[in-house]
Amino acid sequence: MSGTQSSAPAAPPTRIGDLLGRAGDHGEKAFSFEFFPPKDAEGEEVLWRSISELEPLQPTFVSVTYGAGGTTRDRTLAITGRIARETSLLPMAHLTCVGHTTAELERIVTDLRAAGVANVLALRGDPPEGPGAPFTSTPGGVDHASDLVALVRRAQPDLCVGVAAFPEGHRDAATLDDDVAVLRAKQDAGAEFAVTEMVLRASDYLGLVERAAAAGVTIPIVPGIMPILRLSSMERMVELSGRDIPEEVRARLESRADDPAAVRAEGVAIATELCEELLQQGSPGLHFYTLNRSRATREIWSALALPVG
């Protein structure tokens, strides 16, 4: 045969586990954004405007949450599928155990795969009454995130499955060691990466990573970031997860309590400092909880001098 035969370049990986592994091999960082299904047309407009404003930043992936008790299932599927079809973004859909039988869960992951979605975040999920309410099993369903991971891998073996991790331990875990044992069980079931609940202190995240490594967890653990734009709103959020705002953070915000703009600016500054420390300490990237708004995320992105496009 004369001449040389050129081969087409390999398609970029679409599995988040592959992307995180590749980033780790080359010392790069992964950056991602999270959205939630809106309740009405106005919220839908805000969501898609935020997606369009954040798309030029070319995040590693974006995720779409799942309401308590599976209440937003259809909207989660629709939004995730539309992101896959109409944007350049790599979407990940959340999926929970709550409110679904095994057969329903299998149909959902089949529908996701048919919609072009290659990544799922498998969660136990909150009951319809919200975080902190007693967990109630669904007849014919599964009770643990590790069981859901295994179900997804059986139903759609080519899907990449991520899971949640908790810097200060899940509110239902008796001890931090019990909490990290659950993370190890998720890995053993087939999870390829984890995304944490919002990190409030870098030391909490670093402690989780240390405990996880000691328990044999080798998958990447990406810290979740949510800037405090209003102290009262963040107080409600951390209460739902059974935590407290760190006193040093509270002091910085309360000193500006009479000026909402100053509180917001300080909250963004605190989040930026946290991101800097996490990246310096070796986190594989950052996962931003956007609350369907892009401005604060873009401000932090700019302050960190992260690449655009």
Furnish the topology, listing elements before pairings.
Elements: H1 16-25, E1 30-35, H2 41-54, E2 61-64, H3 73-86, E3 91-96, H4 102-114, E4 119-123, H5 145-155, E5 160-165, H6 176-189, E6 193-198, H7 202-214, E7 221-225, H8 231-240, H9 247-254, H10 260-280, E8 285-289, H11 295-303
Helix pairs in contact: 4-5, 5-6, 9-10, 10-11
Protein architecture, described:
- Helices cover 44% and strands 14% of the residues.
- The protein is an alpha/beta fold and 309 residues long.
- It has a single domain, classed as TIM Barrel, CATH 3.20.20.220.
- Strands 1-2-3-4-5-6-7-8 form an eight-stranded parallel β-barrel, surrounded by seven helices.
- Strand 5, helix 6 and strand 6 form a beta-alpha-beta unit.
- Helix 4 packs across helix 5 and helix 9 runs antiparallel to helix 10.
- It is globular, with a radius of gyration of 19 Å.
- Residues 1-10 have low confidence and may be disordered.
* Helix-strand sequence: HEHEHEHEHEHEHEHHHEH
Radius of gyration: 19 Å
Provide a count of the helices: 11
- Described by the principal axes of the CA atoms, the overall outline is globular
Give the strand content: 5-15%
The low-confidence parts are 1-10
Largest sheet: 8 strands, parallel, barrel
- The top-level CATH class is Alpha Beta
Oligomeric state, counting identical vs distinct chains: single chain
Please name the CATH topology.
TIM Barrel
Number of strands: 8
* Mean pLDDT figure: 89
Going by helix content, strand content and strand pairing, the class is alpha/beta
Domain count, please report it: 1
The strand order across the widest sheet is 1-2-3-4-5-6-7-8
* Ends distance: 42 Å
Q: Please name the CATH architecture.
A: Alpha-Beta Barrel
**Amount of helix:** 40-55%
